[in-house]
Amino acid sequence: MVYSPRTGIARYPLQVPSAEECRKSPRRWQADLDRQRRVSQIPATDDGDWPGGRRCSSPLCQDEIDATGNGDGCLEATGNSGPTRSHIIRDSLKIALNPIFSESQCYLSRANLMKTAVIGAGHSGYTIAASLVLSGHEIILYDMPRFKQNLDPIIKRGGIELSGVAEKGFAKIDRVQRIWRKQ
Amino acid sequence: MHRLERHHLIAELCAPHLQDGQIIVLLAGNVGSLEFAKTLKVKHPEILRKKDIKIAETEGMPYGCRRAIGEAMTEILFVGQRHLAAFPAKHTKKVIEDLKEVFLLHPGRNVIEVGLSNPNITGHVAGSILNTGYIEASEGSSSYGNKE
């Protein structure tokens, strides 16, 4: 049973399905549609576009709806302070694609969001940071002053673009720290 | 076999900021958790005595990845399952439980077993040897896997 490429919590197709596969399996097509949205950052328009036709209805999602006041809040929520759009999609897919996951488990998943310091902005640091942000976790990325050239592109662009076989999308990183002490 | 050049420095820099209940995970560890714990124990003994700090490491990164040099872009090439061990090993189960939402991990026997199981030790050496010509042609400005 595999959902997240990193955690393996619930079912989720790891590879982008081909057009032929999409025609054979509408469920995989819907999952692919969501991945496309995550990359292009196109918001979902109605419940019918979501896998299984459902949105995540955990208590935290409801809070987000109330906070934004537009009745569509949790789906549009971004940033490190609250559940991210990708996390909403993850929970929606978790409920829709795996019948054993209940809404209460979805709520627990959100409650376990972590605050993480990623030390080192090399290949691994970039990927870990982007992957955690896209999963809804809050991160701070650190590196030594001597490696400031690694952090400059992130500061300039405001985040990291993640691609490949697992999660995809633009991870907005608010906090980048590059000075620990003078060396 | 392993190079632990910076673990003690990072441990010293982190020490004043460590808070109760935090988990330090070294990805990949290369047995660095021993160096990390030693640094805290020798130079900041009050931290391990008064605070619940868990130190753990994995045998490698949870996925193969490659960063675009000079750009804020990175790519995940493959996803793997990794072993994790804490130091001391009695914390391994708890750390894996805390991180189960983040990474797909299996418990290792101890940090030495996990550190010596790092696939990079063999994988990167072979790749570097096969790319010797390319690396030498760039006069050291490029390494295996980086095309600038």
The DSSP helix count of chain A reads 8
SSE string of chain A: HHHHHHEHEHEEE
Overall 3D geometry of chain B? globular
Q: N-to-C terminal Cα separation of chain B, in Å?
A: 29 Å
Q: Assess the beta-strand content of chain A as a share of residues.
A: 5-15%
Instruction: Give the biggest beta sheet of chain B.
Output: 4 strands, mixed
How many strands of chain A? 5
Oligomeric status of the shown chains?
A: heterodimer
How large is the share of residues in beta strands of chain B? 15-25%
The gyration radius over C-alpha positions of chain B equals 17 Å
Distance between the termini of chain A: 48 Å
Extract low-pLDDT stretches of chain B.
none
Overall SS class of chain A: alpha/beta
Q: What is the averaged pLDDT score of chain B?
A: 85
Q: What is the CATH class name of the largest domain in chain B?
A: Alpha Beta
Report the count of strand segments of chain B. 6
Radius of gyration of chain A: 17 Å
Report the sheet with the most strands of chain A, covering strand number, pairing sense and barrel closure: 3 strands, parallel
Helical content band of chain B: 25-40%
Proportion of helical residues of chain A: 40-55%
Topology:
The complex is a heterodimer of chains A (183) and B (148).
Chain A: H1 19-24, H2 26-40, H3 59-68, H4 73-76, H5 85-97, H6 103-111, E1 115-119, H7 123-134, E2 138-142, H8 148-157, E3 159-164, E4 169-172, E5 176-177
Chain B: H1 7-14, E1 23-26, H2 32-43, H3 45-50, E2 54-58, E3 63-67, E4 73-79, E5 82-87, H4 92-99, E6 105-107, H5 111-116, H6 120-130, H7 132-137
Parallel strand pairs in B: 1-2, 5-6
Antiparallel strand pairs in B: 2-5, 3-4
